[in-house]
């Protein structure tokens, strides 16, 4: 029986979620498995990987062959490095303490890279949000300025029409007052 370390798909359509499992190579993709080693969620950025390192290394020692994607996940989490270092310990090239020290320094460096990526993503997201907010403020300021200008133009236009109307009214009043004395003079002439 050959054993594969592979992914077993779960989750809904368009939102995959995978289990990392050790399974018989003849079993179906989402079928029977020997042991669940961890989970892999590619929907987050960076992808969330939860892996039982000791269990994965145990299966690698027993001859399980990982698929390409599972190999990438095991390499990312350090399972392949631990398997390699354990081979060096078995051959006598280094001691278990040295292997553990190398693994822990590698894991710390990897965690630092992942944290740096998360900080970079959060900073980029914050920068994009600040840029969008600034652009929105500029658009709002332009819109308010345009509205204020339109209102000022409307007030100026209404004042101009009011002035014209008052000038016309004054002109009418003056015209009627000039006609009234002339009419009175005509009345006096007709009476005499």
Describe the overall structure.
With 192 residues, the chain is of the alpha+beta class. 67% of the residues lie in helices and 17% in strands. The protein is built from four helices and five strands. A five-stranded mixed beta sheet has the order 4-3-2-1-5. Strand 1 and strand 2 form a beta hairpin. It starts with a strand and ends with a helix. The mean pLDDT is 86.
Give a quick precis of the structure.
With 192 residues, the protein is α+β, with helices and mostly antiparallel strands.
Features:
192 residues, alpha+beta, 4 helices, rod-shaped
Helix-strand sequence: EEEEHEHHH
Termini, distance in Å?
Answer: 143 Å
What is Rg?
A: 43 Å
User: What is the structural class?
Assistant: alpha+beta
- Residue stretches low in confidence (pLDDT < 50, at least 5 long) are none
**H/I helix tally:** 4
What is the percentage of strand-forming residues? 15-25%
The number of strands is 5
Within the largest sheet, what's the order of strands? 4-3-2-1-5
What general outline do the C-alpha atoms trace? rod-shaped
The percentage helix is 55-70%
Q: Sheet bearing the most strands, described? A: 5 strands, mixed
Average residue-wise pLDDT: 86
């Amino acid at each position: 029986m050959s054993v594969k370390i592979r992914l077993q798909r779960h989750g809904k359509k368009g939102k995959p979620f995978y289990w990392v499992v050790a399974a018989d190579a003849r079993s179906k993709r989402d079928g029977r498995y020997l042991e669940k080693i961890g989970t892999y969620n590619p929907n987050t950025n960076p992808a969330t990987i939860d892996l039982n390192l000791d269990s994965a290394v145990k299966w690698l020692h027993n001859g399980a062959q990982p698929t390409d994607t599972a190999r990438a996940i095991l390499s990312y989490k350090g399972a392949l490095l631990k398997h390699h270092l354990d081979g060096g310990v078995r051959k006598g090239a280094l001691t278990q303490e040295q292997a553990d020290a190398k693994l822990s320094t590698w894991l710390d460096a990897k965690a630092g890279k992942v944290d740096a990526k998360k900080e970079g993503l959060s900073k980029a997201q914050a920068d994009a949000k600040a840029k969008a907010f600034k652009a929105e403020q500029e658009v709002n300021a332009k819109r308010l300025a345009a509205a204020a200008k339109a209102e000022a133009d409307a007030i100026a236009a209404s004042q101009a029409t009011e002035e014209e109307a008052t000038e016309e009214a004054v002109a009418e009043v003056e015209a009627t007052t000039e006609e009234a004395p002339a009419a009175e003079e005509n009345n006096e002439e007709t009476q005499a």
